[in-house]
Amino acid sequence: MRSAPFFIALASVFAACNGDLQPVDDSGTDSTTDSGTASDTSTGSDTGTDSDTGTDSGTTQPVGCDATPLTPAPDALGTCHTAELFCGDHIEHTTVGGSTDYSSDTYEAWQCFGQWGIGNDYSAPERSYFIAAPPGTQPVVTLKTKCHNFTLRQLMVSAFDECPTNSNLPVCEGSRSSGADLSTTLFPGYNYMIVVDGIDGAEGAFSLDVSCP
User: Fold this and answer.
1) Of 3, 97, 103, 134, which has the fewest CB atoms closer than 10 Å, so is most exposed?
2) H or E segment at 5?
3) What are the pLDDT digits (tens) for 88-121?
4) Domain ranges of the chain
5) Domain 83-211 top-level CATH class
6) Residue 11: how many CA atoms within 13 Å on its side-chain side?
């Protein structure tokens, strides 16, 4: 028969074992505190950072050197004009296939360029456009071309169907480019013909922008 000290020792062992098992209750302490770390997966909310792609809207670049943009016939409007221009327009055309109504002799007679234009050949095709400058604003017409030597001219006309001759041209102002942008400013309330012409045989693509501040 077991003695009393034996049972007392056995009871102590069970008590000790039960004391060792108590920490099991803490097993879940770490698993719950970190369970929310997956909430960081929402970092994908930055995918909208490409919204800046529209920052260049409103700006235009010159058409490519070898571009062949679709362009109306030089008499598409029943006159010498390829098209009519309006405030806010951006067009891309080519002088290839344009009219050949104006030459060096014409521009010299009109004194479009002053002394610096004398001696150049303007027999290459040109493109002519009509624009009626609205009252109260001064339209600015800008020519852009990357690779061609062009001239930009404003000719004041009396009506849409007028194609100027030496005898009826009141105003002609022009400037020429070597691949740089050209701009001309129009007076409010007047009608103009805008002419893009090649220097010394130059032909190719260009763009025109009309802004009305």
Assistant:
1) 3
2) helix 4-21
3) 999 999 999 999 988 888 888 787 876 555 668 8
4) 83-211
5) mainly beta
6) 6
